[in-house]
Amino acid sequence: MKVLVIGSGGREHALVWKISQSPMVDKIYCAPGNAGIAQLAECVAIKAEDLDGLLDFALQNEIGLTVVGPEVPLTMGVVDKFQEKGLKIFGPSGRAAEIEGSKTFAKDLMAKYGIPTAKYGAFIDAEEAKAFLAEVGLPCVVKADGLAAGKGVLICETKEEAETAVDDILVDNKFGNAGSRVVVEEFLTGQEVSMLAFSDGKTIVPMVSSQDHKRIWDGDKGLNTGGMGAYSPAPVYTPDVHEIVVPQVLEATIKAMEQEGRPFAGILYAGLMLTADGPKVLEFNARFGDPETQAVLPRLKSDLVEIFLAIIDGRLNEMNIEWYEEAAVCVVMASGGYPETSDKGRVITGMKEAEETGTIVFHAGTKEIDGNIVTNGGRVLAISALGKDIAEAIANAYKGVEKVKFENMQYRTDIGKKAFL
Ligand code: AMP
Ligand code: GLY
Q1: Candidates 3.60.21.10, 3.40.1280.10, 1.10.10.10, 3.30.470.20; correct CATH number of 191-318?
Q2: Is residue 292 lining ligand 1, measured as CB closer than 6 Å?
Q3: Residue 264 to residues 64, 97, 98, 199, 260, Cα–Cα distance (Å)
Q4: pLDDT-based confidence at 180, cuts 50/70/90?
């Protein structure tokens, strides 16, 4: 079978890597891909948002399965478009992807169906939003409603900061269309965990737990990023927590989406805060996480393509999905200035040596120029390793990281340490 993967980051490299291990697959294409993906797949220069271009390509090349990595094409309805032409595609419909595309939709859904989440209000009027601030207290969280590549969440310590955040989003349109509404939320404290689950709209199969590291610097300091590293499993996500999360969050959400006439087939990603009052949902994503995928997929024993096809056919209940016992850690190496600016074109060395230590070098922002692999801005590489436990996986991952060099590189030296708090 020919498979097309949409996207160009570390997550997509991990997807292509895992898909390439399936005996069902003859050839993989990736649109647009990156220099690492090009070692396993044929990269085609079609942007992830160019839905017509992607559809034409899939029809012309008899693609048997398309897998969507990022959220933007999902919310634009790429799945609906492919399905109308009878093509098999993995991911939720545009209406189901709204669980990620609109925070107001997600919060209203949780409120309606009693899914645990932070207290909130959703507003289109700045004065009403400001009046509501008193109800959630300080600190509070002000969020742009729509997709803002992780930048639309503002944690505010003072009333002035919160009012400015509301004005930035609603009045000054700093987030464009994503900010036509705001969600004002109670601030939650606790450890964050990512729980991803396979769903065909009826059955849910949770993956192994993982934890991201959102801030740029060690010790969770500095600006929020797309994610600087991940580890799996997250020890704070105990069997007791799992017993709450599966029925109250994952199953409840899939049932709610079905009742709303938006059956969710794809990856449901619940970003959870483990608070003193129990687990609460911070956000839902309608796709695999980046970099969680680079820590979770190396632990998956089963054939991912078989799982995707079972989900598309609505027979996830027949699948027995197996995982390796080992832990996994993924360390992201980013370009200088990230996340504020994007340094590009730096030659990367040592990737082969990193692989020789046993790590998997997933590419994110890389490009091939004149036979050299160079940085292409943002997150550049995600270096993953397995180990018998998290401590060993950390040590293994950093053995690979130490081999890689490019000018102005930045990476955290404390990925996975939270597992020992
Ligand atoms: P989101 O995109 O909604 O997950 O928010 C991005 C990050 O902001 C999360 O990973 C949390 O670290 C933080 N965050 C979001 N909502 C809250 C909240 N209600 N309380 C505390 N932190 C939050
Ligand atoms: N790692 C966070 C995300 O994928 O949204």
Answers
A1: 3.30.470.20
A2: no
A3: 21, 8, 10, 7, 10
A4: confident
